[in-house]
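Structure ticket #2291
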Amino acid sequence: MIHMIRHGKPASIWGGTDDDPGLDDVGHQQARAVAKALLALPPGERPTRVISSPLRRCRETAQPFADALGVAVEIDPGVGEIPTPAGLSNEARPAWLRTAFGQRWSEIEGDLDYADWAVGVGAAVAQYEGCAVFSHFVAINAALGCAIDDDRAVVFRPDHTSVTVFQVKDGRLCLLQQGAEAATQVL
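Resolution: structure written out below.
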């Protein structure tokens, strides 16, 4: 099994001055709570490795679980945040994301083939059988879309520290359990 976890509540939102915020106090509490929940899984289901997006909010969410396991957090940009088109400012990113969230991967405008990016996220996640993968709203949607053959950029709205569980069957990512959905919008 692969447990894919959305990061905890960040200290700032999109378009702020910090393009790599850590967690706020609630986010740190969420990180400790998800670590406790993962540790409570039976030995055959409990992840034994910890993988994270390079961004600080994911690394900080992953750290309590890694500390409890006594392992290092392994960084993989392949499970990272959706790349922003070159030249797009922090201030313009929220509007670009809002538009992207209503589209299919192939319709998203930018200097990248976002359909290929989404498939790449699914492939990155599929290599982490037995791991906890700490990632982002959009990357979790990319992985879920790969698992259920849905090419929408937003398939569901994972809450902070929600856990979506996948397995790999015949080299393909398959959904076992969708994580908790956020009660509010991302933006």
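Closing remark: Residues 36 and 158 are 19 Å apart (CA to CA).
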